[in-house]
Structures
1.
Amino acid sequence: MKRSGTADLPLHYGQVPQWLADRMKKIGGAISLAIIHEYGRDEFLRRISDPFWFQAFGAVMGMDWHSSGITSSVMYALKRALNPISHETGLYILGGRGKYSRNTPAEITYIKII
């Protein structure tokens, strides 16, 4: 299977509607936990770092497959779903887009404390 090529992703402005953000949190969290519990944290990280898998994951969560905002939307949903149970998974999702990206150093410091 050829695993190279290009894709034209239109730039989408605005934000994900709340109903979709909530759905993405629920579905993304459930899938992530299933992978972590069945295959381990390292396998989850391997999968989520694969761009083809990540794009498909975002589509399953409800994002348009060609959306330019899929990365930030998926990671925000996972941050909301997984950070409250980080003591169980050992995973912390930090940062965000825009003004939230500037909170990353404080988030790192907070995690070092706990």
2.
Amino acid sequence: MLPFVFKNPLVEGVIEKRNTQFTMQVNYNGESYHCHCPSTGRVGNLELSERPCLLSSSVDSSRKTAFTVEAISLNKPEDSEKKWIGINQNAANRYVEHFLRNGGFSKMISTSNVICREQILGNSKLDFFVGDTFIEVKTSLLFLQMDIPEYVKTKKIAPYSAKADRMTRHFIELGNSIGKNQRAIMLLCFLL
């Protein structure tokens, strides 16, 4: 069983620009579409305009955007073979849950336990609680673990960000709130 199956096949477009934290303008089949961007922060230090992207179509007719940008590529738009970087940080939790339910982390966590989503620990909401273990999933897009081709435009590297502050807060919260006989895992997920 796959962790997530798109109702319709993904289609390829080219990002024109990032409008806001949550939206991008994407050219697909010669038309410009207002699309949802599921990564609210930077993707590395990349300038996303002119990058190929994969789009999922929305099945919700009440949604304001017809598509969601699921992945980007550092290849040129005209390249026939592309490698993709997943940018849908929400999808990472679905993938982790799938692997938890199917024994993918059996060396770290017992698969016989109930899997609870979004559990409060101190002042933080953590992604999972399984048995005696809290799990916080982080999908790092700030630093890409790959070489950036010369033709890809980049931005100045941003200083320490609010997302890094949030991750630091989660580390501290985990350390201060974890009870006797409880464990915590900070799981870094890369969607390459």
3.
Amino acid sequence: MNQDLTVGRPENVLWKFCLPLFGSIIFQQLYNIADSLVAGKFIGENALAAVGNSYEITLIFIAFAFGCNIGCSVIVSQFFGAKDYNGMKTAVYTSMISSAVLCLLLMISGIPGCRGLLSLINTPEQILTDSQLYLDIYMWGLPFMFFYNIATGIFSAMGDSRTPFLFLAVSSTVNIAVDIFFVTVLHMGVAGVAWATFLCQGASCILAVTVVLRRLKSIRTTGHIPLFSLPVFRKVASIAIPSILQQSFISVGNIVIQSVINSFGASVIAGYAAAVKLNNLVITSFTTLGNGISNYTAQNMGAKKPGRIKEGFRAGIKLVWLLSLPLCLLYFFAGRWLLYLFMDSPTGTAVQTGILFLRILAPFYFVVSAKLVADGTLRGAGIMKRFMVSTFTDLILRVVLAVLLSKTALGATGIWCAWPIGWSVATALSVCFYHNGPWKNVKHS
């Protein structure tokens, strides 16, 4: 059901809205975790390395879908908060049409270019064929990923975080079962892992789009609703393009880092592939909570209630820090047993690589989570230039330091050390930018 985020006690409203989002991203990440888990446990270490290696390239395409989600969600939130339902519907239709065109262009350019990208990042020969196979199947599922992201962005914009959670809970659970069936019963190998994700994401996409269109139809409006509006497209693009650039550059940076990691061999790649999935589960969860804060901020900006934004920021920090504590302790002290979930016959190098990666990064979850809350607030208010500055600072530091430190006596350990440095500097910038936002001198909601 739709929820107005501009009324009620901010902390209660935000937590009620964000907690289902957190549950949703847990299930969303189960798609990728299930792929790696099944590949590592039922096929082998090379299959795990192949799926993990391909994942860094899939993040480029996820970046575009994520940007479309954010652009649509923020603008629809602003219309919804201002009670302009005609404008809201036009924003939805405009976002869907423009996203479909973008998705088509990505498929045309991406399908024939997968092998070239894999060669570019120094993919070892023993995992090249499986990496390409996984990517080829993944590319055909891009429309499902794009329209599912648009649908969830619309649900969130209207204050409904429960419906997408239910879709994901069912589809991701089914995905695990189908993964195992395709690999262990049909013996499809890495292709089985990819096709399982394709089918389950497709089902969840169709359900989500169907429900969101019915939800929109139930909202009463007057007069003609344009299916496409250039002014609305510009508004959506002003949020979506910086978000796409942010995620794309992060993905490119991750690919550069992956190419450095690939020079250390298949065992290090496998250890990193397992550990980075666990790390991405946390970071993506915080990012999704940041997206929820963007919706909250955008609705309140549309309703001209900047005082509630300050209260929402404080509530968001409290929420992510409460989540950071158990996750930090779990990864730091129980990382070895979590990594074993992905590996059937793990080598010592793979396991030690994963453990070290998690122990270096986990204590800094408190830092990066604060950045993502501040980023979500800035993005919801449309303050995109400052948002981009902190994001690129983090990315540039991590990539440059990963390359430089990997060439020292630290070796692969130097790569892992680049993360906390980039996070810390960028968090300081994001929090400073937040404190100088348009709500700076507002004292009451």
4.
Amino acid sequence: MNKYKNIDLHMHSTYSDGTDTPATLVENANIIGLDLMSLTDHDTIKGCQNLLALAKHPDFVTGIEFSCKSNGQKCHLLGYGFDINDNGIKAITDATYKARVDKVACTFDYLKDNFNIVIPEADMNEALSSNSPSHSHVAQLMIKNGFASDTVEAFRIIDGYQGKGSYVTPEEAIEVILGAGGVPVLAHGVFEDGGGNLDFNEMQSRVRKLKDAGLMGLECYYSTFEQKHHDIMLTLATEFNLLVTAGSDYHGTNKTVPFAHTGKFPVKPETMEPFYDVIADKVISAV
């Protein structure tokens, strides 16, 4: 019988586009009684490094979330239990960091050229020097400087940006995660990169391709899934013999997901057991 009853394997901190520090995440995790957690900041391991230095964290498994794109299709790949000192992980996060800086810099130019939205240089420099620059940082600066009333309005403007940018492919992300001894898992399945809504046939086609590339799991329990979404992902996990994970995708005040949404997952405990078995020797025990 597995000891984990209350888990969250998908959270973000101030090291990417979350608003809580790793210390705050750990404090809240202890308050609500999380048994197992993972910090999955976008394209960076710096938050994990910070969290591991903290005292009294719950059982913890290293995590990351890669933003991927291939042939016009976007997806996010989660990695769990990898060696945080692996050279491949370090190399890919260095490359994705540069790509994020370039994308955000181009977004500032896009806002200026198309909407006459000029963000003060000091604010831009602060965003560009953050641990994982993102459109969430841009949106917050638009609100701060009076160019948008809230994040919904800000993203409605930002989403028009169609810069090419530089992306990691899903296959590259999977290869790096596996090479570092980790477990690659597809994030928020039917929602694609977070903003999509794929049907069963499309999901089946994508999962088949990713499984061939080495994918090991699917995030079947997710904070904003309806039961039909859970059912689709669980069906695919069974069909392709993939591990099952659960995560809230908590971002603090940057998203409307409460901390932590784990208790509201309709989790069937037996579906999670294979994942726990695979990460058993990768878990960093509570201190």
